[in-house]
Design goal:
heterodimer; A: alpha/beta; Rossmann fold; 3 domains; six-stranded parallel sheet; B: 103 residues; mainly alpha; 4 helices
Chain lengths: 470, 103
């Protein structure tokens, strides 16, 4: 009996176990850096074992191709990871998701092409003839959808492509495309190695990915990015069946499950069903909600600063506007100045604030705000009634009382931060324009609310100066 | 092309199903602070498809009929490596920023 194949498989299992520990440790702040290192080490191990295995079985005949691919990919990945600004994190994570899915789809296509003509297996016990085409088809379908869907999401996130496109009967088109893809996978089983079917499947799945994300608006991106993350894992798991490798099956399905959990958390935070996000595509179309035009007096920073005089507790509520104006550093400075004046400062983070899960947490961490000052919706909501000032920086829908007062509206039922209960609500915002949901925010017009109109960074800098002079 | 008995297939499907359940159990309680690093770390792990990409790219570019397959394998390898290297690096960078009070 030959021992080597068994050793390779055991080494792959060790890599998979490292992934399991990696993910487990990633879910607690103290152990997370170790978790990331374990995951990276598992990946390194899997690559080394693969090279050893190839060397022993067929020889590494394609070493120039392999070296070039790893060097190029490593260089691009490394530079991107080093260069990215924390504000650009949603785009980068989205892009990496897409690349993972694209890689799986390309592996499937490559193996599918290479296997042409090899489908006459004399062994009747071999069901690989059926499993292989199904795996190639499934991996292609999920992988291509992940790639093009992620690219559209990235374009939406960085503003290249802002419009939410609604085609008439788009759900019907998506359903037809999906059924077409399944039919082509079925076709691959009966005519394995058909290039036309593999290319047709790739094209249909790419179009499906585009149509999947294109109608969905910016504020739903946390849901979409989490779901694409899950898909990139499932694509890798399907590729595991293409190349008969358990490390891919285990690693891929762990990621698939993790992404689904995050998707669920994001949907819950918006009180939406996942299917509604995807198929109803609320793209903020109904912006002209109420006919009456209300106006409100804006304040100057010097006037607004007075509310911090004598304040004992302040809760800062950041939103996507903080990310857009890159105001996280001045927000941190402002919090420090208040704390030096003996004010109790906390941050209230809505789960879907920003454009990806945990977006605000990353930005504030970049600005050196300790994470134990950031509080989740459930932890902080009861504290607004005792707080002197709620300072809202570029958030809108996540603090809109319409979620409670208008249960049938677009925001109806979404859990919000109860900033309206604070003694004074100070809102830094560029204009009165409604948020993504297209619902006018009644909070802006309340007597206890002071509006500071302007860019988040600029207004907070002015506010900081004014408070220092108190 | 792969050679597979029904027993081997069943074992692989069992691994798939159990891993999905394991994934749900592993990450069901994640604090919001870690949502982004978890997502980007998990995403880097999905780069395990690099193993498949290595197999797909392991051929001479002159190997007649399969040149296209090798080129696709090369592209897969580039994308998968970006996914792994970039993913783990950027997750590490993010995690180094998270601090507790008084540090």
């Amino acid at each position: 009996m030959e021992l080597a194949p068994l050793l390779y498989d055991l080494a792959y299992l060790v890599a998979a176990v490292l992934f399991i520990f990696g993910l487990k440790f990633l879910s607690s702040p103290r152990t997370a850096p170790l978790g990331n290192s374990l995951g990276a080490f598992g990946m390194f191990l899997a690559v080394i074992v693969t090279l050893l295995k190839m060397n022993a079985e067929t020889g590494i005949i394609g070493w120039p191709v392999i070296l070039a691919g790893v060097a190029l990919g490593g260089l691009i990945g490394g530079v991107m990871a080093k260069r990215v600004e924390m504000t650009g994190m949603p785009e980068l994570v989205g892009l990496f998701n897409g690349f993972g899915g694209g890689a799986s789809a390309l592996v499937a296509l490559s193996e599918g092409l290479r296997a042409r003509g090899a489908f006459v297996d004399p062994d009747p016990a071999n069901i690989g003839d059926i499993v292989f085409p199904i795996a190639v088809g499934t991996s292609s379908l999920i992988g291509w959808v992940t790639l093009t869907g992620s690219l559209i999401a990235v374009f939406k996130l960085n503003g290249v492509f802002r419009k939410n496109v609604f085609l008439p009967g788009q759900n019907g088109i998506k359903a037809l495309l999906f059924l077409g893809c399944l039919a082509m996978i079925g076709g691959l089983v009966s005519t394995p190695g058909s290039v036309a079917l593999m290319v047709g499947l790739a094209v249909a799945a790419c179009v499906l990915g585009v149509l999947f994300v294109i109608p969905i608006g910016g504020a739903d991106m946390p849901v979409v990015v989490s779901f694409l993350n899950s898909l990139s894992g499932l694509a890798a798991a399907a590729t595991g069946f293409v190349v008969s490798n358990n490390a891919l099956i285990i690693g891929g399905s762990l990621v698939g499950a993790a992404g689904l959990i995050l998707t669920g958390i994001m949907c819950k935070a918006m009180n939406r069903r996942f299917l509604d996000v995807v198929f109803k595509a609320y793209g903020g179309g109904a912006a002209e909600a109420s006919g009456e035009k209300r106006t409100v007096q804006g304040y100057e920073a010097e006037e607004a600063a007075l509310v911090f005089d004598g304040a004992r507790s302040v809760i800062i509520v950041p939103g996507y506007g903080m990310a857009v104006s890159q105001a996280q550093h001045v927000v941190q400075e402002f919090a420090t100045v208040l704390e030096e004046r003996g004010v109790d400062v906390k941050f209230a983070i809505h789960p879907v604030a920003g454009r990806m899960p945990g977006h605000m947490n990353v930005l504030l961490a970049e600005a050196s705000v300790p994470y134990d000052k950031l509080f989740d919706l459930d932890e902080i909501n009861s504290e607004f009634s005792d707080c002197d000032v709620a300072l809202v920086v570029g958030a809108n829908d996540t603090v809109n009382p319409a979620a409670k007062t208008d249960p049938g509206g677009p925001l109806g039922g979404m859990p919000i931060l109860d900033v309206e209960k604070a003694r004074t609500v100070l809102i830094v915002k560029r204009s009165l324009s409604p948020g993504y949901a297209g619902v006018d925010n009644d909070l802006f017009y309340r007597p206890s609310t002071m509006m500071l109109f302007g860019d988040g960074k600029k207004m907070l800098t002015e506010l900081l100066m004014a408070v220092k002079e108190l | 092309m792969i050679h597979l008995t029904s027993g081997e297939l069943m074992a692989s499907i069992t691994v798939l199903v159990l891993s999905i359940f394991l994934g749900f159990e592993l990450i069901s309680k994640v604090p919001p602070t870690l949502h982004t690093p978890l997502m980007s770390g998990a995403n880097a792990i999905s780069g395990i498809t690099i193993v498949g990409a290595l197999f797909a790219a392991n051929a001479r570019l002159s190997a007649g009929d399969h040149v296209m397959a090798t080129i696709l394998g090369f592209c897969a390898l580039v994308l998968a490596t970006i996914n792994c290297v970039g993913g783990f690096m950027v997750t590490g960078r993010m995690l180094r920023m998270f601090k507790r009070k008084g540090k």
